[in-house]
Amino acid sequence: MNALSKLIAVEAKLFLREPVSLFFVFALPLGLMLVFGLPQRGASGADAGQHGELTFLPALALALTIGMLALFTLPMALGIYRERRVLRRLATTPVNPALLLVAQVVVNLVMGVAGAVVTAIGVRFLLDQPAPANVPAFVLAFLLGVACLFAVGLLIAALAPSARAAQSIGPALFFPLLFLAGAWLPRDQMPTVLARIGDYSPLGATVDTLAAAWAGDSPAWPQLLALAVTAVVGSVLATRFFRWE
Fold first, then answer.
1. Fewer CB atoms < 10 Å away: N or C end of the chain?
2. Which of 143, 104, 115, 85 is nearest to 238 (CA)?
3. Where are the transmembrane segments (predicted)?
4. Domain limits of the chain?
5. CA angle at residue 148 from 32 to 47, to 5 degrees?
């Protein structure tokens, strides 16, 4: 077993020991869908379209999972490692400290995929709705959403001076993004400028592209492009400003 696989195994064990993180990945999305989706169980027609409640809810639940992993878990873990000088100590060993960042991203990505699978199964059997109809587009939208939000999370980890700061910056960014995604107020009821910003925000674009693929439609290419551009820009900036100690 090489150094990276060992680090991934250790990080996975640490993640699984955190009940709060597991709640974010598995319990919260299912709870959200059951609370708001059970009254519409078995609905069809308009409710099942791209903008229907039974496609918007699972898309929002998935975006919620990815967003919490990216903006809560990832920056806080890396901030703690920097504060405790774990990264600096790794630099004195044959293990490259950058491998710890890779291991963190891999573990959070795997957990996000697991959360997506559980959500899809919950939609199918608990809400009596079909699984994503356009699977290739759904996978593309999911991966771009993960890349975009994880890049933002890594940028927070790079810029935050401490773990406490990362713990504050993540939620301070997450909840406005959740609002722009239409979690509390549908975007068609927002002012035009605000709704347009929401369409291309990280969570808004992720929700829309996932919902479109779930309903069997093709996601809007401008939104996919916005996710890809944000992922590239965020990754470049995170690499530029990341501090090991």
1. N
2. 104
3. 20-39, 59-78, 99-123, 135-157, 169-186, 224-242
4. 3-241
5. 35
